[in-house]
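Structure Section — protein described below
Tokens — whole-number codes for backbone shape
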Amino acid sequence: MKKLDKLIIRTFLGPFVATFFVTLFVLVMQFLWKYVDDLVGKGLDTMVIVQLIAYTSATLVTLALPLAVLLSSIMTFGNLGESFELVALKSAGISLLRFIRPLLVVCSIIGVLAFLFANYVIPVANLQAKSLLYDITYSKPAFNIKAGVFYRDIPGYTIKVAQKDKDNQTIHQVMIFDHSTGGGGGDKVILAEKGQMVLTANKRFLYFILENGWRYEEKGNNGYSVPGDMIRFSFKKYSKAFDLSSFAFNRLNTDLFASNQQMLNIRQLDLAIDSLQKSQNIFARTVNAYVTVRFPFFKWKDSAWAATAPPLQVKDFEEIVPEKSRRNVLDRAEQSVRETLSSLEAPTKEYSDKHSVILMHKVEWQRKFTLAAACVVMFLIGAPLGSIIRKGGLGTPLVFAVIFFVIFNIFFMIGEKMARSGVMFTWSGMWLSNIVLVPIAGFLIYKAMNDSNLFNKEFYFRIYQKIKKFLQKFRRNKFKKQPTI
């Protein structure tokens, strides 16, 4: 490797690592902002939050890499242009394509690593992240009784306290409605002047230690009491235990999510697509057999048929049906069509659902290659763009990087949506963003090789001055040609 190649690679790797982690951090923050309502107030452990962020970060790596490559390539060549190193290289007879070549190799390696990461790591990360997010979303909020509000999150109980002290344990004017079926009776009501809330060390049980109250219990017909009897007990001190096991954070079996297309690699997607297509063909054969029986179309020509069909003498079907049989014939035809459509409705819906699942699997198959190839495409845009604008730092390169990444993301989402809905082929829909950006990359490379003034303010200012002078000259000539009165 020559010193020039080492210099360019060393200049590129620093901004690339920095921009990659910054981009990944922004994408993770966007994810957390989206699901902040599902995360707050659940009493989750720190380790659960760390696991969710780690798995989510892994799933966003392939999306962060193209933006990091684009921004770092603009910064690298912008810094080289701003310090006139590009001018020195070109004056030494080294073309733009020559000192782009080592970084093109590096970005190609990054693209291959992105594909391997998307194929082997992201399916596992998706499985863990999606299952963990599902468990968090459907878990109950942390136990929190508020003063003056009926609390119903404990199964079988409704609790209300009129006042809570600052220690968050002492409570006043307590009402507990017991709707559980245990004890062989009906509803139970407990009223107390004050009490204490005590949580066990393992947070499995909550004890209400109540003082000065009454307990009301309605007894049903259990063999020794009259139905509808109301029993009242007074107490000086009474302890009531509540089971908080339903508030514990429990993990579901990840195998429940393993069949989703986002959790599969290339080989598994191929097997799944093949199985789904075989299953889909069964419906086609079933519908074909059912329709053929009801509406037979003869394959062989009958010997009594004429060589050419005689001209049709009637203009309306009703003319060849006797009037007395017309209503009966139309009703039977309508009923036959209705029965056929009704019997085909369920297979049609199932066929459509199977086809949608196949399209989603094909989209996921193409995604693993699309985002990997986007790393190379983004470099082919960023390198000539940086050599044209000749601005280093983070300001101007960030603006251009965001513009092109937004263009890439818009066409990527549009193409994916069209591919999922069957409007476009899956390969053309998923590669739409790269197809749009490759001509732009070729145009920028051509401009950079010819030292274009595409982003030079003085170039556009000179054009403006020429247009201004031309308009002024045109206006003077126009006034000279006007006849005098």
Remarks:
- The chain is about 60% helix and 15% strand.
- The mean pLDDT is 79.
